Amino acid sequence: MNDKTMLIKQLEKVVELLNQKRIEEPTRMLDLIVSKYEKALKIVNSKSVSEITYADLSINGSVRAYVDAYSDWLNPMLGEMDKAEKMAEKLLPRR
Question: How do residues 32-85 score in pLDDT, each as one tens digit?
Fold first, then answer.
């Protein structure tokens, strides 16, 4: 599996986890975070890696935004979100 495919799988996993959380405890902040990850997933699915920059995904800082809204430091979803951010940062250039 190549790096792009692994990033797509990770973004899909995060979107699924965020949507489960949104059902349990909906907030405007969570809606915003979900929309950022869904947009990132759409971008990664529709473009080649050479056409995307890390900034295009707009997911940087989502972990902090989630913690600020929920104070849920022990949620394993945070690790998955962080993993997605790090994978994107490693794969995509910062322009």
Answer: 999 999 999 999 999 999 899 988 999 998 999 889 888 888 889 999 999 999
Q: Helix 3-24 crosses helix 77-91 at what angle (to 10 degrees)? A: 150
- In angstroms, how far is the first alpha carbon of the chain from the final one? 26
Neighbours of 38 (CB within 10 A): 16
Phi, psi of 31 (to 5 degrees): -60, -40
Tell me the whole-structure pTM to 2 decimals.
0.91
Rounded Cα gap, residues 13 and 16, in angstroms: 5
Cβ pair 37, 62 in contact under 8 A: yes
Burial class from Cβ neighbours inside 10 Å (0-12, 13-18, 19+) for residue 50 reads exposed
| H helix runs in the chain, sequence order | 3-24, 28-46, 54-57, 62-70, 77-91
Residues 35 and 17: their CA atoms lie apart, in Å, by 13
